[in-house]
Amino acid sequence: MKAVVHVMLKPGVLDPQGEAVRHALGSLGFGGVEGVRQGKVIELDLAGSDAEAAEVEVKQMCEKLLANTVIESYRIEIA
Amino acid sequence: MRAAVVVFPGSNCDRDLAVAFRAAGIDPVMVWHKETSLPDGVDIVGLPGGFSYGDYLRCGAIAARSPICRAVIAHADRGGMVLGICNGFQVLVESGLLPGALMRNAGLKFLCKPVTLNVVTSNSPFTAGYEAGQDVVYPIAHHDGNYTADPELLARLDGDDRVAYRYADNPNGSVGDIAGILSENRRVLGLMPHPERAIDPMQGGTDGMLLFSAISGALETA
């Protein structure tokens, strides 16, 4: 079973890297990009087969390590 | 007087920090990150600058979950002193010993230069040797020193006199020009600038020495 965790900066937290990417896109001629937010995707290979239990455990992983919940939010997909 | 200097894979200011402690009469012991306890009789723990675990995931994130950090958190919970410099400050916020977060510098560049800091409070065992309001020069060397806190936390830090240092000329976008903060009991200090790189005239200045002699003074009278 796979779990995919998406980690993004919370809304309202300035993302200087996203801003730099936005400027670079502008300089390549891609007009109309009003905002860029950069995040992380973390893939986990899990041994178990119980999706519900996996989600609970991955949520704990996010809270304890994978995301810094002071500034980041996360979303979990179990597949 | 004894200091433990924690060494993570990727630490690179650990020896400088040990030299600074020794210059203040505090005997430093280097402690590897895989240790699960601090040596006996440790009065203060130093978390050094560097790039622990290659800054993987987030700066300081993996180090904050290493075996030795559980012992460091227990030491702080007992009222022990902890000094986190640069990457050490990042470890302190990742471990929850200090609030807030440190993000990528607003200008996205790694910054390495001496900066002028305002010592906001002399009410701590780290800053007692300075006058509140005094300007000092310490070097900075970081990519992720942009301190972030929500308005409620900022108000609490200000109200409780827990901002230890502010930048005179904000280099990295830190909210409130914050360069260093204290824990609630004022026994844990985290700061991005490097006082241990300003203890000898050969380094271009000695403004950082007063921090280490204040620690030694506080430990002596304790």
UniProtKB/TrEMBL annotation, chain A:
Q: Where in the cell is it found?
A: Cytoplasm
**Subunit and partners:** Part of the FGAM synthase complex composed of 1 PurL, 1 PurQ and 2 PurS subunits.
Q: Which Pfam families match?
A: PurS (PF02700)
Kindly state which reaction or reactions the protein catalyses: N(2)-formyl-N(1)-(5-phospho-beta-D-ribosyl)glycinamide + L-glutamine + ATP + H2O = 2-formamido-N(1)-(5-O-phospho-beta-D-ribosyl)acetamidine + L-glutamate + ADP + phosphate + H(+)
EC number(s): the record gives 6.3.5.3
Q: Which family does it belong to?
A: Belongs to the PurS family.
**What does this protein's UniProt record list under function?**
Part of the phosphoribosylformylglycinamidine synthase complex involved in the purines biosynthetic pathway. Catalyzes the ATP-dependent conversion of formylglycinamide ribonucleotide (FGAR) and glutamine to yield formylglycinamidine ribonucleotide (FGAM) and glutamate. The FGAM synthase complex is composed of three subunits. PurQ produces an ammonia molecule by converting glutamine to glutamate. PurL transfers the ammonia molecule to FGAR to form FGAM in an ATP-dependent manner.
Report the GO molecular function annotations: ATP binding; phosphoribosylformylglycinamidine synthase activity
What gene is behind this protein?
purS
**Coiled-coil residues:** none
- Which keywords annotate this record? ATP-binding, Cytoplasm, Ligase, Nucleotide-binding, Purine biosynthesis
Q: In which pathway does it act?
A: Purine metabolism; IMP biosynthesis via de novo pathway; 5-amino-1-(5-phospho-D-ribosyl)imidazole from N(2)-formyl-N(1)-(5-phospho-D-ribosyl)glycinamide: step 1/2
Classification via SUPFAM superfamilies = PurS-like
Name by which UniProt lists this protein: Phosphoribosylformylglycinamidine synthase subunit PurS
One GO-annotated biological process of the protein:
'de novo' IMP biosynthetic process
Q: Tell me the superkingdom of the source.
A: Bacteria
Can you supply one Gene Ontology CC term for this chain's record? cytoplasm
Cited PANTHER family? PHOSPHORIBOSYLFORMYLGLYCINAMIDINE SYNTHASE SUBUNIT PURS
- Give the main location: cytoplasm
Keyword Nucleotide-binding among record annotations: yes
Organism of origin: Meridianimarinicoccus aquatilis
Checking Gene3D superfamilies in the record gives:
Phosphoribosylformylglycinamidine synthase subunit PurS
UniProtKB/TrEMBL annotation, chain B:
List its EC numbers: 6.3.5.3, 3.5.1.2
Pathway, per UniProt?
A: Purine metabolism; IMP biosynthesis via de novo pathway; 5-amino-1-(5-phospho-D-ribosyl)imidazole from N(2)-formyl-N(1)-(5-phospho-D-ribosyl)glycinamide: step 1/2
Q: What cellular-component terms does GO give this entry?
A: cytoplasm
Q: What is the organism field in this record?
A: Meridianimarinicoccus aquatilis
Q: Which UniProt keywords apply?
A: ATP-binding, Cytoplasm, Glutamine amidotransferase, Hydrolase, Ligase, Nucleotide-binding, Purine biosynthesis
Query: Where does the protein end up?
Result: Cytoplasm
One Pfam family here: GATase_5
Could you describe the subunit structure of this protein? Answer: Part of the FGAM synthase complex composed of 1 PurL, 1 PurQ and 2 PurS subunits.
- Tell me, which GO biological process terms does this entry list? 'de novo' IMP biosynthetic process
The UniProt entry, under InterPro entries, shows: Class_I_gatase-like, PRibForGlyAmidine_synth_PurQ
The main location is cytoplasm
Catalyses:
N(2)-formyl-N(1)-(5-phospho-beta-D-ribosyl)glycinamide + L-glutamine + ATP + H2O = 2-formamido-N(1)-(5-O-phospho-beta-D-ribosyl)acetamidine + L-glutamate + ADP + phosphate + H(+); L-glutamine + H2O = L-glutamate + NH4(+)
Could you confirm whether the keyword Transcription appears in this record?
A: no
A GO MF term: phosphoribosylformylglycinamidine synthase activity
Q: What is this protein called?
A: Phosphoribosylformylglycinamidine synthase subunit PurQ
Its function?
Part of the phosphoribosylformylglycinamidine synthase complex involved in the purines biosynthetic pathway. Catalyzes the ATP-dependent conversion of formylglycinamide ribonucleotide (FGAR) and glutamine to yield formylglycinamidine ribonucleotide (FGAM) and glutamate. The FGAM synthase complex is composed of three subunits. PurQ produces an ammonia molecule by converting glutamine to glutamate. PurL transfers the ammonia molecule to FGAR to form FGAM in an ATP-dependent manner.
Task: Give the positions the UniProt entry annotates as the active site.
Answer: 86, 194, 196
Q: Which PROSITE patterns match?
A: GATASE_TYPE_1
